[in-house]
Specification:
By secondary structure, the protein is of the alpha/beta class. Helices cover 39% and strands 12% of the residues. It is built from 11 helices and 7 strands. The longest helix is centred in the middle third of the chain and has 19 residues, at 104-122.
Length: 258
Amino acid sequence: MKLLVQADDYGLTLGTADGIITAIRTGLVRATGIFINMPWAEYAVERISHYPECSFGIDINVVSGPCTADPAKIPTLVDENGWFIPSRIRVLDPEYGKKNFFPEEEVYIEGCAQVEKYIRLTGHKPAYIQNHSVTGINGYRPALRRLCETYGVPYMDDIKEKYNIVALKRPEFTDNYDYDVQNRDMEKEMLELLEENQDLEYAFIPSHCGYLDRDLFEYSRYTWNRFQDLAMVTSKKIAKWCEDHDVQIISVKDLPMD
């Protein structure tokens, strides 16, 4: 088995950035995408620059924190202060599901601004571009695909499809934000999933690693699960299972796109 372990939301908060660095330094994570629009983006970029073994991508974020583009050009996405309107607020709107809150052109404009900021801070293009949070919305995915074409960067969904990479996760729970659901034992669950799927050629472990800090509860409904995921990807039991079963831990760099 070739195994790609990814941590989403890098730089969402300082605690998230530091937790993912721990997941790279002492664990199995070899891919992470940054929220380049967040106030601590420069801190996060500097920290990950010491870990070239990890493929460093970008998660195009249009639901948390301040926008990167001119807010006048993306009026549907932001409030009067130029901050993205969170998903938890959108779902309370009586027009939710009836109108497009994420129009393709606005997402593309913001996405370009985020990619340009990434390039400015890192000196190179992202290893991949990935969705965040609003993947089922009509205008969002087409905008990301335009971004990939514009900048010549692979789309993470296409990478997974090309190599038939299977995500190791249980079916979605009724409420993924429920306290008990987020606090389940991810180490135990992942060991079971690895055993069940050990004959796969390519497998993928998604995670949302991080340390809990005050800002996390402001920006995300994924909270308590972050330290459970961090414990899972740094688990000595899981590392030993991978060693015993000749699992090759890979990064996006090991999955070239034509």
